[in-house]
Specification:
Blueprint lengths: L5 E3 L2 E3 L4 E5 L6 E6 L3 H20 L2 H17 L1 H12 L14 H17 L5 E5 L3 E9 L2 E5 L7 H12 L3 E5 L5 H12 L7 E3 L4 H9 L5 E5 L2 H14 L3 E4 L4 E5 L5 H13 L9 E7 L3 H14 L18 H16 L3 E4 L14 E4 L6 H4 L6 E7 L2 H9 L3 E2 L1 E5 L3 H8 L6 E4 L14 E2 L2 E2 L4 H6 L2 E9 L1
Parallel strand pairs: 7-8, 7-10, 8-9, 10-11, 12-13, 12-18, 13-16, 15-16, 18-19
Antiparallel strand pairs: 1-2, 3-4, 5-6, 6-22, 11-21, 14-15, 17-20
Helix pairs in contact: 2-4, 2-6, 3-4, 3-6, 4-5, 9-10
């Protein structure tokens, strides 16, 4: 069985200890992943610190050109990397085309695009103030060494969101992939590090102890984390001890509100994939659906028809739209939430039963007859289950959307864009979509409010977030 390796200072690095990476669709072991030691974490940070001054000193145009070469390397290896995503994370291979389900190939295409866009951006000197007596300029400087901790749901794409803007701005990076999906991420870094100077991009793999050693290292100048609110709180506490700045994209429980004038047939597909893209394992997926009395039954019927038509199985097989839940811990949480809803009188419209057999498969599940306060409504399920809650007036739906201490995304569905805009402005979320859900873009800032985190990624604002301003004030 192959043992994969980390990249540290341009070299391939193993470890005395290792752990298995498993295929969530079959249960088979895919390979062994090194468990980095505290000394190896320190070595990776030291390599990044040593490489950072020369990397930052390069002209912007050189860093931009190298990152465009990184995008080319990703594209040249796209099918290899996509297959690793499917085998290790579970999402179907899918594709990018309009008639294909966004899956692993879409994720790798996203890696390419989210490399090209930051590489193309400029951060010019800004003149904050100027008169006859003085000129005040704002220059953007890198932090230094960025610690990036990537999740298991979009393991390569979210890693790129952390890596590429950091490198573009002149930082160097030490990345810890999720212990559930390490191999694909390590392989991607191996491929793209070959076109970068040694030490600019490094990896350390392992469990929470490795992540803790990384964020607690005093050689780290900035932390980027995507994951659960609970883990984010622990990382923030560690960062506070060293006064290390952070960008946190944490848990969400996105509300989607259908207005009484919406057309159930017209919105059904958008609602379905807004909730069930990547088996619902997306931070900004629709996880609570509020539907008015007059449309409730029609919306449920449309979603049920779609759910029952979507083929579920091993994503390496053709024609598969829905894959497994990535890991058994998450699978058990989804089962627990559905069983709790059943026990309290909710109605399971479709799904709701374990499929049995190998793999972490759980059918797309729609639950009605449920209300705010239920565990399935109040806790982020992060799986292929959607509670559908009736409402009588829009004011109560807005109050329901805002009642939880999370605010990553939300959506409003209506035939009247003006009315939808007015409601969107009242929802407490970092992004509110209208007649769509979860449709991110590399030029549009993305981040959460409340317990869903702080800071933004993507676009110019995201690039600025991995820099610190320096004012140069000149007396005339």
């Amino acid at each position: 069985m192959k043992t994969f390796e980390n990249t540290v200072n341009g070299r391939r690095v193993g470890s005395a200890r290792s752990f298995e990476s498993k295929n969530p669709a079959t249960g088979e072991t895919l390979g062994l992943v090194p468990h980095s030691t505290p000394e190896q974490v320190a070595e990776a940070v030291a390599a990044a610190r040593a490489a950072q001054p020369a990397w930052a000193a390069r002209p912007d145009a050189e860093r931009q050109a190298l990152l465009m070469t990184v995008a080319e390397a990703i594209k040249a290896n796209d099918e290899y990397l996509a297959e690793w995503v499917t085998r290790e994370q579970g999402k179907p291979l899918g594709g990018v085309g309009p008639d294909q389900v966004p899956g692993a190939r879409f994720e790798i295409w996203g890696c390419e695009v989210w490399t090209q866009v930051p590489a193309s951006l400029e951060l010019p000197v800004e003149v904050a103030f100027e008169d006859d007596t003085r000129r005040d300029e704002v220059h953007r400087k890198p932090f230094g060494v960025v610690a990036a901790i990537a999740p298991w749901n979009w393991p390569l794409l979210i890693a790129i969101w952390q890596i590429v803007p950091s490198l573009r701005a002149g930082n160097t990076v030490v990345l810890k992939p999720s212990e559930y999906t390490s191999i694909g991420t390590l392989e991607m870094v191996r491929i793209i590090a070959e076109v970068l100077p040694p030490g600019v991009l490094n990896t350390v793999s392992g469990g929470g102890d490795v992540g803790a050693a990384l964020v607690e290292n005093t050689g780290i100048d900035k932390i980027m984390f995507t994951g659960s609110t609970a883990t984010g709180a622990r990382i923030a506490a560690a960062a506070a001890r060293n006064l290390t700045p952070t960008t946190m994209e944490l848990g969400g429980n996105d509300a989607a509100i259908v207005l009484p004038d919406a057309d159930p047939k017209a919105i059904a597909m958008g609602l379905f994939w807004g909730a069930f893209l990547n088996m619902g394992q997306t931070c900004a997926a629709a996880k609570r659906l509020y539907v008015p009395d007059n449309l409730h039954d029609a919306v449920v019927a449309e979603l049920k028809a779609l759910a029952e038509a979507m083929p579920m199985g091993n994503g390496m097989e053709p024609g598969i739209a829905i894959g497994p839940i990535q890991n058994r811990m998450q699978f058990d949480k989804v089962v627990s939430l559905v069983e709790d809803a059943k026990a309290h009188g909710a109605t399971v419209v479709c799904g709701g039963k374990e499929t049995g057999g190998p793999g972490n498969f759980y059918p797309v599940t729609l639950v009605t007859g449920i209300a705010d306060g239920s565990r399935l409504v109040d806790e982020e399920q992060f799986g292929p289950v959607l509670p559908i809650i009736r409402y009588r007036d829009v004011e109560s739906a807005i109050a329901s959307a805002n009642r939880l201490d999370v605010g990553l995304g939300a959506s409003v569905w209506s035939a009247d864009i003006g009315k939808a805009r007015a409601i969107a402005s009242r929802i407490q979320a970092g992004t509110v979509w209208i007649n769509q859900h979860g449709t991110i873009h590399p030029m549009v800032p993305f981040g959460g409010v409340k317990s869903s985190g702080w800071g933004v990624e993507f676009g110019v604002d995201g690039l600025k977030s991995v820099t610190q301003p320096q004012v140069i004030s000149v007396k005339k």
